[in-house]
Amino acid sequence: MTSAIRRAPGRLATLGCAALVATTVAGCGSVKSTISGTGGKDSAITMGTTAVTSVLDPAGAYDFGSWMVLNNTFQSLLSFPVGATSPQPDAAKSCEFTGADAMTYHCSIRPGQTFSNGHPLTAQDVVFSIDRMKKIKDDNGPSSLFDTIKSVEANGDGDVVFHLTQPDAVLPDKLASGAGSIVDHSVFPADKELPNDQLVGSGPYKIDSIDQTARPDGTKVPGKITLSANSHYKGEQKLKNSKFVLRFFNQPADLKSALDSGDVDLTDNSLDPTVSAQLQADQIAGKGTVQVTDGAGSDTRFLVFNTKDQTTGQVAVRQAIAQLLDRTALSRDVYARTVQPLYSVIPQGITGHNTAFFDKYGDPDPAKAKAILAAAKIQTPVKFTLTWSRANAQGAESAELKRQLEASGLFQVTVQQQADWDAFKKGWANGDYQAYTVGWTPDYPDPDDFVVPLVVDGGAFHNGFDDPQISQKLVPDTLRQADRTVAASTFTAIQNSLAGSVPLVPLFQNKAFYASRADITGVAATMDSTGIFRFGEIGRTS
């Protein structure tokens, strides 16, 4: 195993600031908007979110909130257009692997592109952006996504060649993510990050201003970001608005109040699940003034096991738990059907998804679970502790998991919360927990990003699991397959293997619920499995 195959925890920042943020982020105060959320057709459109962020420089930005801004203010060589799960040329006019071994990648830059300051965007800027990110190597940044890049060179202004240390068929997906944002080499320093209010990109929007707010510890973070159409933008997106404002809220309840009052025109998937469900029910019943648009999401949530623990380290214990869990009840009774049951590590909507856990275990069955434990001569009830830190449903999630397991008479579960997110991460990294619930937000919509970061060499959750057949044979095989549909059969084998070894149990994948005022249009057009919210798709009726 090379370090390039096992990625650093990376988007655990997302877990703290986006996927798990909805009920517990501290310190991002509500900033009063100076632009009315209800105005004429040409007035700024204001979106509210609880995806609090702090760093917007692409070298250090690695959470949902920051990437939401980067995806709309910067270009990458490639991007994911609406509805696409394969990256398409953006700042590049074409990109391709030049050999069958997926070791060399070539891109030709689209001519005539400029940054919002009028500076030309060239191959030198692309090289600078990658080299800079790898040099700064921010511990909380996305540089680990580019560990397979040995070097990158510019041939004139229009051609870029990436030389890799090993096959990496998902390099195009990584370049299409927020990590691939191209920066102006004459503006950004080569060895340190640029302050948020000095950022310059070439995307469809430019940042006009950032209103800061203070956390309790005094740290300044964005409270409101005001954007306008970038007149220098030469890309393919056609904007349906000329001004867009992003506001950050501390709690879902604050965001809901802002929606009710008209201070925001729409929300991302940040409202409390039960609130989203009620708003949708009201809409169906013809009540209320808010419309809800729902769609598939790719954020996933897992029950993770410490495979080095004396109890949860036993495969039979983990298999018995997998045999008992009722995902349908969890989705219905705890999350008001705002999530959907998940039966493998790769969610629906992503190439290679299957239902490996359902295929192996079927419906919840205490008798089968008892037989699994008996065959392994494990005495019941099996006692273990389940730890959680953050969940959209708060403690109701872990309480339901405890109820389901104990109802069988086979388990005795102690539930504990570690409310401090940083302490929670340190706890699982140190092997302090027997089992714990964690969510995952992908970097890009490829099956690789739901497998490698989670199950290779302990993964981002540091649960001690590693299967050499997966990490040393199957995963490297997938990275040689530039045609991702060909790789699907290998990912099927990986998922089936994980259903047997159960280092973690997939619980659900999120549905996305975006709420908006009645005069807002285009929300459905920007909802897809990439998780990218495209500000330019949002419009306002007269």
TrEMBL record:
It is found in: Cell envelope. Keywords: Signal, Transport. Residues 1-26 form the signal peptide. The keyword Signal applies. Its main location: other. Residues 87-457 form the Solute-binding protein family domain. The keyword S-adenosyl-L-methionine does not apply. InterPro entries: Peptide/Ni-bd (IPR030678), SBP_5 (IPR039424), SBP_5_dom (IPR000914). Belongs to the bacterial solute-binding protein 5 family. This is ABC transporter substrate-binding protein.
